[in-house]
Design goal:
The structure is a homodimer of 193-residue chains. Chain A folds into 2 domains: 1-62, Arc Repressor Mutant, subunit A (Orthogonal Bundle); 77-193, Tetracycline Repressor, domain 2. By secondary structure, chain A is mostly helical. Chain A is 75% helix and 0% strand. The N and C termini of chain A lie far apart (63 Å). The first copy, chain A, is elongated. Chains A and B meet through helix 6, helix 7, helix 8 and helix 9 of A and helix 6, helix 7, helix 8 and helix 9 of B. Chain A binds a DNA duplex (30 and 30 nucleotides) through residues 1-7, 29-31, 39-43, 45-47, 50-51.
Chain lengths: 193, 193
DNA sequence: TCTTAATTGAAATGAACGTTTCAAAATTAA
DNA sequence: TTAATTTTGAAACGTTCATTTCAATTAAGA
């Protein structure tokens, strides 16, 4: 029977993510990936099919890290106000820790590839749909609890928050002053109260 | 005496802008630029020095188009409320007309190159500074006119608006429903009143 | 132990990359 | 017309690109 995959797929994805995140898709070469993953060229093609194939897995991996982080935070929050703050705090912490100002892998990829690669476009569509659905749920709860106003529907606020998050990720590329960014998030959230 | 530049530099820049905008910097090849500009390879290197040199001029050209558009709109507005709406309307119109969902050249470039290319980083820093300065000026006027509130300083609101604009440009890549986007902008602006 | 199939390493594929070179053509002012 | 200088075209530069090939190695179940 066959020899099985020996390398740690998660570790490989993590290393590949670091390169793609730093250099972008078009800026990353197969050699970069070979170096970063310590995998053989052939092994990469065996296991991921192509550069794009590997990148799609990297994107999903990155996305799932966020999802689990969000899920964990949302468990600990007992009202919509805390939830929405916890969500933005995750992004803020990411920005503070982003020493070389790479921004968000998904936002960067959206701007680089959505109009060029159908697979990416589909990924971005479902990412947007899921993110907005999550935000809409939180806003809706907040409105039921009378914590958030009802000037706009939960769906409208969700799009606003989704857009604000993307703006925050872009702003965080050049600005990582904690005070300014915290204030920015507060300003974004005042809309809800 | 010397032969002078024969091609229309503005037209060449416009054509180059279209390619860079569509494919991104790393996704654009020298051959793409030769094809788009109908210039000879040598002429490009003679006149722009390098691919990056040409791109820097493209960025400035794109930026100055926006500036003159803003200036024109701001002349026609007689209060801060109209001004800020006119500014966002320029972005909205751009999104509606962006048939192939390229997004904003400057936002895309910021996410692709700021952490990789010092020249780009400098450009983005001065672009951010200028944009925020303009927004701060408008907000400050609005606050003097008692049209905008003073819950936050003009500088704080300017950063918020700058971030919101970037978010809008990112959102516009996948979402170009006029009604949704108009509502999004309205929600962004409610903060000021 | 033998069979089976994946992993691995190294080399090679041809195409595309950004850039350079250089002689010929073009254009201007003297 | 001549001298000066740029534009132009075409080819070539060496490098790097993503991908393929293939024989050797490895590890598991039969």
């Amino acid at each position: 029977m066959p020899k099985t995959e020996t390398f740690n797929r998660n570790q490989v994805l993590q290393n590949a993510t670091a390169v793609f995140h730093k250099k972008g898709y078009n800026g990353t070469s197969m050699q970069d990936l070979v170096d970063a993953t310590s995998l053989n060229r052939s092994s990469i093609y065996n296991s991921f099919g192509s550069k794009l194939g590997m990148f799609m897995e990297v994107l999903s991996h990155y996305q799932s890290l966020y999802k689990s982080q969000m899920g964990k935070e949302l468990m600990h929050s007992h009202n919509a106000s805390n939830m929405i703050k916890a969500i933005f705090d995750i992004y803020l912490k990411d920005i503070y820790g982003d020493r070389d100002r790479k921004g968000c892998l998904i936002v960067n990829c959206k701007s680089e590839m959505t109009n060029q690669e159908p697979l990416i476009k589909s990924f971005m569509e479902q990412n947007q749909e899921q993110t907005i659905a999550m935000l809409e749920d939180v806003v809706h709860n907040g409105q039921m609890e009378k914590i958030f106003n009802e000037d706009q529907t939960a769906a409208q606020y969700a799009l606003y928050l989704y857009s604000s998050i993307q703006g925050l990720r872009m702003t965080g590329i050049l600005t990582n002053n904690e005070e300014e960014l915290k204030n920015l998030v507060n300003t974004v959230l005042t809309v809800l109260y």
